[in-house]
Amino acid sequence: xxxxxxxxxxxxxxxxxxxxxxxxxxxxxxxxxxxxxxxxxxxxxxxxxxxxxxxxxxxxxxxxxxxxxxxxxxxxxxxxxxxxxxxxxxxxxxxxxxxxxxxxxxxxxxxxxxxxxxxxxxxxxxxxxxxxxxxxxxxxxxxx
Length: 144
Known about the structure:
There is one protein chain. Strands 1-3-2 form a three-stranded antiparallel β-sheet. The protein has a domain at 28-104: Winged helix-like DNA-binding domain superfamily/Winged helix DNA-binding domain (Arc Repressor Mutant, subunit A, Orthogonal Bundle). Helix 2 (33-44) crosses helix 3. By secondary structure, the chain is mainly α. The protein contains six helices and three strands. Helix content is 63%, strand content 12%.
């Protein structure tokens, strides 16, 4: 019996979520997932106003205000006046924020790596093609 497209997408979403959750738990990192999610959003969609960032990161505006305050203190993001509306502020990821995000992704990759260690070359090709396809649909940049 052929798996329906909806079932395939559901399996993909559930599996990726489970894979990330397991990897994060294995690292012992205590940084809020909202911080990593917010830095990832800013990596591709910056600068953003606080409200836009809260919506994109799926948190309330007061929660984003607290997150941004912590990320400002850690030099992960910067804040500037919105030139289009001086009442608003724009949030951007800093070089230090990019470096921390890259480090976090390396940690996750190394943590997840053993799950796939026994794949043969054909399976790696399938996984590479699937990840490239997903990346192209989600505006994620990948390397060859």
